[in-house]
Amino acid sequence: MLIAIIFMLAATGLLVLLIILSTVFGKGMPALSLGFLTEPSSDFGAEGGVFYQIIGTLILTVGALAIALPLAVGTTLFQTECLRSHRLKAAFRAVIYSLNAMPTILFGLAGYVLFGVYLGAGVSWLTGALILGIMILPTIQASIQEAVEGLPEKYRETGTSLGMTPWALAQNVVLPLCWHGAVTGGLLGLARAAGETAAIMFTAAAFSGATFPQSFKDPVPTLQTHILVLAQDASQASSLTNAWGAASVLLLMVFLLILFSLWVRNQFSMEAQR
């Protein structure tokens, strides 16, 4: 009975996913073309393509990764290699993971006040990248921590017997053997950052007229906000078609990042078993 219930729940979840995918790609395929991917939008997005929206999304996500990855590596190594108390480790982990429970709109509000107002970045891609970097920090850290904690203890014992300090051990032994966790976590963090909307809607995104940013204080158009604007303009059929097209591009980007991260993890798992 329990197995049947689990099977039904799994099948229901898979069915919902397939319905979402078929709907998005089914409605978005008519808009997808080489011109849609390489041309700028016009008429407030109702015409043209999503070239600058793709560029803006990549700028924000790559910027967020550049901020979050070093922080995730540092906090993970500090937690696993330097903290000796299990209570301190648990408390440290709880603080980091609690970021996942915060509503994204609160990240946007707090981030705009801190980075946009007090640090003077304003509504810019830099503000958005800083906010997204903090948001994806737990995702990246979880992947790195899994790799570090799965490292055989013999490597640490060998390094300790040679008189290595905790930081030397982390830098010269742990990190080189666990870098695949950083790669996997970074890709998953990119996928999450690419799908965020509320946190960047009023902190980093330009809804129309923006192209390639000329400075750190310029906003950028993104696929997420582009979809939001077009979906609100249901009076024009071309707006909805372009909205579904942009949604297809965004969904494809996220799925490719997730699939690539799974491939990386499987490759290193196979190598570890040899």
UniProtKB/TrEMBL annotation:
UniProt keyword terms in alphabetical order: Membrane, Transmembrane, Transmembrane helix, Transport
Protein's GO biological process: transmembrane transport
Main location group: membrane
Membrane in keyword set: yes
Taxonomic superkingdom: Bacteria
Pfam families (alphabetical): BPD_transp_1
One GO location term (cellular component): plasma membrane
SUPFAM superfamilies per record: MetI-like (SSF161098)
Membrane topology field: Multi-pass membrane protein
Residue intervals of the ABC transmembrane type-1 domain: 54-261
Localization terms from the record: Cell membrane
Residue ranges of the TM segments: 50-78, 90-109, 115-137, 243-264
Family annotation (InterPro entries): MetI-like (IPR000515), MetI-like_sf (IPR035906)
Similarity comment: Belongs to the binding-protein-dependent transport system permease family.
Name of the protein described by the UniProt record: ABC transporter permease subunit
